[in-house]
Design a protein that fits this description.
The chain has 18 helices and 23 strands. The protein is α+β, with helices and mostly antiparallel strands and 559 residues long. It folds into 3 domains: 119 residues, Beta-Lactamase, CATH 3.30.450.20; 169 residues, Beta-Lactamase; 219 residues, Phosphatase 2c, domain 1 (4-Layer Sandwich). Strand 18 and strand 19 form a beta hairpin. Helix 14 runs parallel beside helix 15. The chain is globular and about 85 Å long. The N terminus is likely disordered. Its EC number is 3.1.3.16.
């Protein structure tokens, strides 16, 4: 084995040394170039910056690394500069703009996009004759080195930008949007920037009315005029949807002829509205506004038409998703307890987080039941992440409630018989605890559920060993065994589902030990604070499983 170690280690060390030398040489190379430069990732965060760049921008390199430039530099906080970045990222075409660093330093920025981010070249320049709030893509390498300022794009610019590649990029972005909020964000940022628009609005058909889902650059009066009006109202958006045709107004005169006073109210000189239709029915419209008269050449109209089809499908899909989400949340709220009972002598905290994408509903459940001699607590996990699992979860909760007060093993035995009779085809894990205040103890039984944790009054944590029983719903004649543990005042019991501890590829004993450590570290905190901390530490933060937990603490000074 020794013969193989040396050849494997040495090349790796040499590779690291070579990479370090290469990184230093790259940094030296960038520093020798005139002006400054920085690198940005796809989220807009600065990943590389030269010393010359920091000096040009009037800040330190450490302040820029890992940050968004427009967050660090107030004079770059105008949305036009952020839009220039998004335009370059979205169109994959070089973009340039000029900005004033107070009090009197003018800087030119040229953005060169790529698959992994954007490279930015920064130079001093002269003050432009007029600052126009519109960034122009730099079309060729020859023009890339010329000092350029922000100038309005021509009416035919989208003919080039609106190529097949551009539409494919739009389709990709919209296909990844899930919620209506995602569509609004896309419309109000990259789409608006790609069309050189100075205002944009996305409207949706809601029954017989039109409602603004989101807008940017519109005056408050214009937003009110467009929002919450019947489809037969005398507004531009209502006409666009009612007639199911695009409307183009190239000048204030055209706008006011069709809708008197619209140019004054909107502060716009040109307006374009596109209907959004999916599966033969209207779903809304999108409106683009311009401060100066605009001719809307064939390039614009072609791209507008293509965009409207993509947006309509994405919006229709997102609205269906949001409706499913709302229904799922309603079902979940009905099946889980809205509030746990207030039981004297107990402090209780509960948490639930679903990991299902698409329909946020799962089969995890918890419950706390008041009894004459104390209380009962239950927690469980129904197989699956759908409405069927949630419905079965409701039946399990009902069965536990109906038998609460009996010994824990009897509660699980009776609940198991009910589930096997239902033959739902889904299996359920469950842990049931009967807390006896007078005897200062807890009786527990489990049906294939993770073991509870006991936190004593001294802050020590024990993983309780409860005799395991089979999952509910498998064996009709399954029997379960109860176990007893002391639960004096000042101690607490933690019940949870496997989403709080299980990580693929990780030993469950190690995960339980880690959970015990987290509980021990938070022992002195109130139950709500402990529950929040444990939930933040859950490995399901990446969306791998549902999480439910129930923390019950006996208060000091109570019998």
């Amino acid at each position: 084995m020794r013969a193989y170690r040396r050849p494997l280690v040495v090349p790796r060390q040499e590779a690291r040394r070579y990479q370090a030398d290469e990184a230093r040489e790259g940094a030296h190379f960038a520093e020798r170039l005139p002006g400054g430069g920085l690198g940005m990732n796809l989220d807009g965060e600065v990943t590389f910056v030269t010393a010359a760049t920091a000096e040009l921008l009037g800040t330190s390199a450490s302040a820029l690394i890992g940050a968004l430039p427009w967050d660090v530099l107030p004079w770059l906080s105008d949305l036009i500069y952020e839009d220039s970045y998004r335009r370059a990222l979205f169109t994959r075409l070089p973009t340039s703009f000029t900005a004033l660093r107070p009090p009197d330093v003018w800087l030119s920025f040229r953005l060169y996009p790529g698959a992994s981010g954007i490279s930015v070249r920064i130079r001093r320049t002269v003050a432009p004759a007029e600052k126009v709030l519109s960034a122009t893509p730099t079309p060729t390498a020859e023009t890339a080195d010329q000092e350029a300022v922000l100038t309005p794009a021509s009416d035919e610019a989208p003919t080039r930008v609106g190529s097949l590649y551009h539409l494919m990029q739009l389709a990709t972005v919209l296909s990844q949007a899930v919620k209506v909020r995602d569509i609004v964000n896309i419309v109000c940022s990259p789409v608006m920037s790609a069309f050189d628009a100075e205002s944009i609005a996305l409207l949706s058909v809601d029954g017989t009315r039109l409602r603004v889902l989101g807008h940017r650059g519109l005056t408050e009066e214009a937003s009110r005029i467009l929002d919450d009006h019947p489809l037969d109202a005398a507004t531009p958006a209502a006409r666009c949807v009612a007639e199911q045709r695009a409307l183009f107004f190239t000048s204030p005169k055209e706008m006011d002829h069709a809708f008197p006073g619209w140019s004054v109210r909107s502060h716009l000189s040109a307006f374009a509205l596109m209907p959004l239709t999916a599966l033969g029915r209207p779903v809304g419209c999108v409106a683009f506004g311009y401060r100066a008269p605009h001719q809307f050449g064939s390039g614009y109209r072609t791209l507008f038409t293509s965009l409207s089809g993509l947006l309509a499908q994405a919006l229709d899909r997102a609205q269906l998703y949001d409706a499913q989400q709302q229904l799922a949340r309603r079902v979940q709220d009905l099946l889980l307890p809205t509030a746990l009972p207030d039981i004297p002598g107990l402090e209780v905290a509960s948490r639930y987080r679903s990991a299902t994408r698409g329909v946020e509903i799962g089969g995890d459940f918890y419950d706390l039941i008041r009894l004459d001699s104390g209380c009962a607590a239950a927690i469980g996990d129904v197989q699956g992440h759908n409405v069927t699992a949630a419905a079965l979860m409701g039946q399990v909760r009902t069965a536990v409630h109906a038998t609460a007060g009996a010994r824990p093993d009897e509660v699980l035995t009776r609940t198991n018989r009910l589930l096997t009779d239902l033959d739902a085809g889904l299996f359920t894990s469950c842990l049931y605890a009967h807390i006896d205040f007078a005897a200062h103890r807890a009786l527990l039984a489990t049906a294939g559920h993770p073991p509870p944790l006991l936190l004593d009054a001294e802050g020590q944590v024990t993983i309780l060993d409860v005799p395991p029983g089979p999952l509910l719903g498998i064996e009709p004649g399954a029997l379960y065994t109860s176990a007893e543990t002391p639960l004096p005042p000042g101690s607490a019991l933690l019940l949870y589902t496997d989403g709080l501890v299980e990580t693929p590829g990780t030993d469950i004993d190690a995960s339980l030990a880690e959970l015990a450590d987290h509980l021990r570290w938070a022992a002195a905190s109130p139950p709500d604070v402990i529950a929040d901390r444990l939930l933040r530490q859950a490995p399901a933060a990446a969306g791998t499983d549902d999480v439910a937990l129930l923390l019950i603490r006996r208060q000091d000074g109570h019998p």
